[in-house]
Inverse folding.
């Protein structure tokens, strides 16, 4: 399915060359992300289309967008893929609870998401790839796992659902820093079923769920049913990006079990882990709790925009926090961003300003060093405060803020 449109970022003077370093969850250290030249391959886990797009989602996608922009500025092409989990338990549960058809709910929410991403000037992926339109790709990948004896149906006469055997992969716990007990707890909280009878290992994850009454289902060699969650991202990312692509990205709530499950499946299917680097963003909260659909403490991008808030102020509010920190949204955060946006707009509208070559260097190197947006904002703040008589300063700042930070002034 289509993504959304976003203007091409301007090309900045002196761009090209240089590496982008990001914190990698696998090694727990800063790592160069992407190749030195050529094309970087990025996969960002997409939304499950209900309750989209809250500020937590937006913060994650804006952070990933900084990587995309930093890569382009370094002269790389970017091959960017993103799924949409358009069939899964939470979506079906919400549709059932609200009496809405699940496909209509998904469609509405995907459209809302597209509008929000475009308004926030997030550069689009090549396409949004839904699970429903990718069933053949998913069942093919499960077939590759079967060839390695890494999937099996549970011996349940009524619902012989298929599971991935985590013991077939050596990398499941790599970089997670958690014990098996903690892993089981988190697995259970995030859609897993450690207690399902007939599983060979408590962490084995569902790859194909047989049809239940009232649930959508499709025919396949695994029986009539639908895919489990993790395997969709493994299949879609490998199909669109190839083996061992550069970065797999998402919020920290995907750091276990989602991304390790994908990496484990990819290792079994291809002999290589899914991605070279795994990037995880911090969680945005409201009133002391992670902003999440299940808690219902959500602030929606579309609601702020409908209230007349400038999307660039929303983007600046998100960028004011380092992508790896957890933070709380509040109206004060938004007000500070609005004030900053006004200061910047006033400064770039002036006929002259301070020389901005050092500002460009500072913003560029802040972003190349683990996407340090707060440091980048501080550099632009200093430029705006300084003032000066350079007639090329304002235009350069307008361009660099557009290209690197995605903020249109
Ligand atoms: N469809 C799956 C990924 S395959 C999924 O996690 N969907 S989601 O709609 O729940 O989340 C979409 C993205 O937003 C994920 O990267 C998730 O980690 C991130 N996210 C969700 N809640 C928050 C939050 N409160 N703060 C920051 N990021 C969040
Ligand atoms: Zn995913």
């Amino acid at each position: 399915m289509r993504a959304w449109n976003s203007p091409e970022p301007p090309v900045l003077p002196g761009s090209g060359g240089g590496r982008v370093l990001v914190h990698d969850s696998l090694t727990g250290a800063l790592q160069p992300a992407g190749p030195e030249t050529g094309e970087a391959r990025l996969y960002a886990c997409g939304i499950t289309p209900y309750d989209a797009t809250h500020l937590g989602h937006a913060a994650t996608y804006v952070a990933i967008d900084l990587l995309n922009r930093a890569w382009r500025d370094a002269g790389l092409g970017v091959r960017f893929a993103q799924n949409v989990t358009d069939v899964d338990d939470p979506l079906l549960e919400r549709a059932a609870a609200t009496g809405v058809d699940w496909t209509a709910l998904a469609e509405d929410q995907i459209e809302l998401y597209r509008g929000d991403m475009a308004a926030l000037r997030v550069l689009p992926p090549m396409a949004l790839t839904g699970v429903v339109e990718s069933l053949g790709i998913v069942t093919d990948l499960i077939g590759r796992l079967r060839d390695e004896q890494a999937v099996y149906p549970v011996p349940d006469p009524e619902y012989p659902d298929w599971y991935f055997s985590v013991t077939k992969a050596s990398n499941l716990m790599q970089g997670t820093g958690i014990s098996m007990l903690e892993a089981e707890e988190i697995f259970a909280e995030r859609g897993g079923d450690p207690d399902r009878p007939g599983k060979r290992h408590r962490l084995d994850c569902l790859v194909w769920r047989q049809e239940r009454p009232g649930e959508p289902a499709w025919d396949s060699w695994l029986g009539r049913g639908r895919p489990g969650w993790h395997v969709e991202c493994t299949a879609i990312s490998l199909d669109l990006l190839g083996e061992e692509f550069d970065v797999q990205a998402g919020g920290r709530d995907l750091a276990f079990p989602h991304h390790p499950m994908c990496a484990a499946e990819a290792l079994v299917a291809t002999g290589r882990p899914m991605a070279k680097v795994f990037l995880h963003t911090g969680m945005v909260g409201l009133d002391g709790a992670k902003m999440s659909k299940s808690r219902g403490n959500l602030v929606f991008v579309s609601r702020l925009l409908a209230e007349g808030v400038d999307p660039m102020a929303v983007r600046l509010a998100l960028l004011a926090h380092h992508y790896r920190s957890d933070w709380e949204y509040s109206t004060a955060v938004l007000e500070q961003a609005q004030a900053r946006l006004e200061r910047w707009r006033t400064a770039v509208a002036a006929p002259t300003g301070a020389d901005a070559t050092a500002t460009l260097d500072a913003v560029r190197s802040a972003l190349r060093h683990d996407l340090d947006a707060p440091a980048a904002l501080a550099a632009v703040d200093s430029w705006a405060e300084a003032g000066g008589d350079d007639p090329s300063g304002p235009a350069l700042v307008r361009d660099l803020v557009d290209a690197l930070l995605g903020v249109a002034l």
Q: What stands out?
A: The chain is about 40% helix and 15% strand. The first helix runs from residue 55 to 73. The CA atoms of residues 41 and 98 lie 38 Å apart.
